[in-house]
């Protein structure tokens, strides 16, 4: 059993232990927030039959989902608590995804909404919290001096998740803040947290001359596999990069391999346009 701090009073944390019956297992539903977005689409395409899903959607879907779902906003605390009730794990994708989003929007939707989700998860006894961070949390590493060379296979610049955040926009600030919230809730309450800094997720392949997109490409199948490993692996707190096994890369996937057992199958070098070419 893992230590859980259930005392929210001031002073030194008081560690106690939950009986096993009070810790939800992977036999319980998995809550997928922001399920209507691109990442949610990739996860459900690959893992629809692997778990009992509960979906949280911001807007009514065009077609009736095959899974239990709720419609609402992560800034609604009552809705968040209802969504988290009885689940064993949370994959939190919801928020304003726009790189140009305003401070008011990311503060409400991305920061406050994530904090509400963590509070509800801790109170419910959720075992794992998988947080959709972003390449924008470290976007300012892409300086004029480093680009475009850092997008190329022969460049040795590499981020591995141990570096401090360096956001290049307020959206990135909100994603970095979400990672820090995860650190706090793990340290204080023992919930297992995996932050996934998602790269360039596309169904089709990025144009072959789009060097940045090639270097941080994440295929739909690899996205689903990575999130499955984040649900199944044994870890405490992690920050990993969510990209495929590209020849060109400036994000390391070694920590995802080591901590989660991530084994990506796709590589941006093995595609030309929409067609897979013979592997060299």
UniProtKB/TrEMBL annotation:
<protein>
    <recommendedName>
        <fullName>NAD-dependent glucose-6-phosphate dehydrogenase</fullName>
        <ecNumber>1.1.1.388</ecNumber>
    </recommendedName>
</protein>
<dbReference type="InterPro" id="IPR036291">
    <property type="entry name" value="NAD(P)-bd_dom_sf"/>
</dbReference>
<dbReference type="GO" id="GO:0070403">
    <property type="term" value="F:NAD+ binding"/>
</dbReference>
<comment type="function">
    <text>Catalyzes the NAD-dependent oxidation of glucose 6-phosphate to 6-phosphogluconolactone.</text>
</comment>
<feature type="binding site">
    <location>
        <position position="134"/>
    </location>
    <ligand>
        <name>NAD(+)</name>
    </ligand>
</feature>
<feature type="binding site">
    <location>
        <position position="171"/>
    </location>
    <ligand>
        <name>NAD(+)</name>
    </ligand>
</feature>
<feature type="domain" description="NAD-dependent epimerase/dehydratase">
    <location>
        <begin position="30"/>
        <end position="201"/>
    </location>
</feature>
<keyword id="KW-0119">Carbohydrate metabolism</keyword>
<dbReference type="GO" id="GO:0006006">
    <property type="term" value="P:glucose metabolic process"/>
</dbReference>
<keyword id="KW-0560">Oxidoreductase</keyword>
<dbReference type="GO" id="GO:0009051">
    <property type="term" value="P:pentose-phosphate shunt, oxidative branch"/>
</dbReference>
<comment type="similarity">
    <text>Belongs to the NAD(P)-dependent epimerase/dehydratase family.</text>
</comment>
<dbReference type="InterPro" id="IPR032884">
    <property type="entry name" value="Glc6PDH_archaea"/>
</dbReference>
<dbReference type="GO" id="GO:0004345">
    <property type="term" value="F:glucose-6-phosphate dehydrogenase activity"/>
</dbReference>
<comment type="subunit">
    <text>Homodimer.</text>
</comment>
<dbReference type="Pfam" id="PF01370">
    <property type="entry name" value="Epimerase"/>
</dbReference>
<keyword id="KW-0520">NAD</keyword>
<dbReference type="InterPro" id="IPR001509">
    <property type="entry name" value="Epimerase_deHydtase"/>
</dbReference>
<feature type="active site" description="Proton acceptor">
    <location>
        <position position="171"/>
    </location>
</feature>
<feature type="binding site">
    <location>
        <position position="175"/>
    </location>
    <ligand>
        <name>NAD(+)</name>
    </ligand>
</feature>
<keyword id="KW-0313">Glucose metabolism</keyword>
<feature type="binding site">
    <location>
        <position position="109"/>
    </location>
    <ligand>
        <name>NAD(+)</name>
    </ligand>
</feature>
<comment type="pathway">
    <text>Carbohydrate degradation; pentose phosphate pathway.</text>
</comment>
């Amino acid at each position: 059993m893992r230590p859980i701090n259930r005392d929210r009073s001031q002073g030194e944390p008081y560690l106690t232990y939950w009986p096993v019956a009070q810790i939800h297992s992977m036999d319980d539903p998995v809550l997928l927030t922001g399920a209507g977005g691109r990442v949610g689409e990739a996860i459900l395409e690959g893992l629809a039959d692997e778990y009992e899903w509960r979906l949280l959607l911001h807007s009514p879907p065009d077609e009736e989902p095959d899974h239990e779902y709720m419609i609402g906003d992560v800034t609604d605390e009552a809705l968040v608590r209802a969504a988290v009730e009885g689940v064993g794990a949370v994959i939190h994708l919801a928020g304003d995804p726009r790189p140009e989003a305003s401070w008011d929007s990311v503060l409400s939707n991305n920061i406050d909404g994530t904090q509400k989700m963590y509070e509800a998860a801790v109170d419910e006894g959720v075992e794992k919290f998988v947080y959709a961070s972003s390449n924008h949390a470290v976007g300012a590493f892409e300086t004029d001096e480093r680009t475009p060379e850092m997008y190329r296979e022969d460049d040795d610049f590499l981020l591995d998740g141990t570096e401090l955040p360096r956001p290049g926009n307020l959206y990135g600030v909100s994603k970095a803040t979400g990672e820090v919230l995860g650190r706090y809730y793990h340290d204080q309450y023992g919930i297992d947290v995996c932050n996934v800094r998602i790269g360039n997720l596309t169904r089709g392949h990025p144009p072959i001359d789009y060097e940045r997109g090639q270097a941080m490409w994440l295929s739909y199948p690899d996205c689903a596999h990575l999130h499955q490993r984040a649900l199944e692996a044994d870890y405490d707190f992690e920050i990993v990069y969510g990209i495929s096994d590209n020849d060109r890369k400036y994000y390391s996937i070694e920590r995802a391999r080591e901590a989660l057992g991530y084994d990506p199958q796709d590589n941006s070098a093995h595609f030309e346009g929409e067609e897979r070419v013979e592997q060299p």
